[in-house]
Specification:
This protein has 15 helices and 7 strands. By secondary structure, it is α/β, with parallel strands linked by helices. Keywords: Cytoplasm, Methyltransferase, rRNA processing, S-adenosyl-L-methionine, Transferase.
Length: about 325
C-alpha cells in the first residue's frame, strides 16, 4: 500500500536483525539442500528473512507473524523476491498446521527471534515501551485478545502478583499489585505513563537506583501474559522440531531467562537418550534425535553490540535433526 512507502524504505534501518551472520552460518548446511524451505517463525519486519533470501537464492521462506502490521510491512519489503516468500498471519505454535495448508511436509530450517519486535517497540501507540506514554495495549495481534489494561483492571491482586513474579521475576510484585488495585478503585488504568508512575512509587528509592528502568520487569510480565508468550513457545518448540526434515536445523534467539530456559530444555531433551540408565545397548528408538550445534547459549560480541544495542541480552541456541523423533516422544499434532 502506497501510504506505507516510507515505512518500507525505513524498515531496514529500523530493524537491524540480531546476529544475522551467525544465524545464516548456522542454517547454511541445512539450507544447501535443493528445494530447501525455511520457516521464519517470528517474521517481524523481515530482516532475518531478507538475509536468508539474499544469501541462499534457491531457498523459499514461509514467514509467520501474529502482528498484521508487521506482515504487511514485511510483505512489501520482501515483494522483490516474488513467490520465494510467503507471509502467513499465525502464531508460531501453529507452524505444522500452516505447513500442512501449504502442502509442505517438512522443512530444512526454522528460525525464531523471540521477544518484542523493533516495530512494536518503535510504534508508541502499541503500548509496549515504558519510555513513551501510550494506551495500555501490548497485544502483538491487535485484532484479538485481552489488552494490558484489561489485565491490570480485572485480575485480582493475587493473580497480578503471580503474573509479575512469574513472568517479570519482579521482587516487588506484591507492592506493585497492591498499588494497582488501589489506583483502579478510583479510576481504571488506561495509559503506560500512569503505570510507570505507579511502579516508581511502589518500589523503594534504593532499589530504583540499580537494575535498569524500574518498570522494565512489570512491562515484560504484562506483555508475556497478554500474548500468552511462554505458553505459545512451549508448544511451538516441539512443533517446530517435528516440522524439521532429517538434516534440518532450528536456530532460536531468546532475550530473557524464562524463554531461554524453555529453549534449552527442548533442545537438550532431543539431544539426550531417552533410554533408562544402565542399559548396556541403547535401542534406536531411544537414541537422540537432535544434535546441539552451539555450545550452550551464544551471546553477542562487542562488534554486534556496537552495531545493534538490542542484541545485548540475546542468547542463541541451535540444533540439527539427526533422525525422526521416536514414536513415544512425538508430540500430537495441534489443530487450530
Amino acid at each position: 500500500m502506497g501510504e506505507h512507502g516510507d515505512d518500507v524504505r525505513g524498515a531496514a534501518e529500523r530493524h537491524v536483525p540480531v546476529l544475522l551472520e551467525r544465524c545464516l552460518e548456522l542454517l547454511a548446511p541445512a539450507l544447501a539442500e535443493p528445494g530447501a524451505v525455511m520457516v521464519d517463525c517470528t517474521l517481524g519486519m523481515g530482516g532475518h528473512t531478507e538475509g536468508v533470501l539474499r544469501r541462499f537464492p534457491h531457498v523459499r521462506v514461509v514467514g509467520l507473524d501474529r502482528d498484521t502490521q508487521a506482515l504487511e510491512l514485511a510483505g512489501e519489503r520482501l515483494a522483490p523476491f516474488g513467490d520465494r516468500f510467503t507471509g502467513v498471519h499465525a502464531v508460531y505454535d501453529e507452524i505444522r498446521d500452516v505447513l500442512a495448508d501449504l502442502g509442505i511436509p517438512a522443512v530444512q530450517g526454522v528460525l525464531m527471534d523471540l521477544g518484542v519486535s523493533s516495530l512494536q517497540l518503535d510504534e508508541a501507540e502499541r503500548g509496549f515501551s515504558y519510555a513513551k506514554d501510550a494506551p495500555l495495549d501490548m497485544r502483538m495481534d491487535a485484532t484479538a485478545g485481552l489488552t494490558a489494561a484489561d489485565v491490570l483492571n480485572t485480575y485480582d491482586e493475587r493473580d497480578l502478583v503471580r503474573v509479575l513474579r512469574t513472568y517479570g521475576e519482579e521482587r516487588f510484585a506484591p507492592r506493585i499489585a497492591r498499588s494497582v488495585v488501589r489506583a483502579r478503585a478510583v479510576a481504571p488504568l488506561a495509559r503506560t505513563g500512569e503505570l510507570v508512575d505507579l511502579i516508581r512509587s511502589s518500589i523503594p528509592m534504593a532499589a530504583r537506583q540499580t537494575g535498569g528502568h524500574p518498570a522494565k520487569r512489570t512491562f515484560q510480565a504484562l506483555r508475556i501474559e497478554v500474548n500468552g508468550e511462554l505458553e505459545a513457545l512451549q508448544h511451538a518448540l516441539p512443533e517446530s522440531i517435528e516440522a524439521l526434515a532429517v538434516g534440518g536445523r532450528i536456530v532460536v534467539e531468546a532475550y530473557q531467562s524464562l524463554e531461554d530456559r524453555l529453549v534449552k530444555h527442548a533442545l537438550a531433551a532431543g539431544a539426550t537418550t531417552s533410554a533408562p540408565p544402565g542399559l548396556p545397548v541403547v535401542p534406536d528408538t531411544h537414541q537422540p534425535y537432535l544434535r546441539l550445534v552451539t555450545r550452550g547459549a551464544e551471546e553477542a560480541d562487542e562488534a554486534e553490540l556496537a552495531r545493534n544495542p538490542r542484541s545485548q541480552s540475546v542468547r542463541l541456541r541451535a540444533a540439527e535433526r539427526l533422525r525422526p523423533t521416536p514414536d513415544h516422544l512425538r508430540t500430537n499434532r495441534r489443530t487450530a
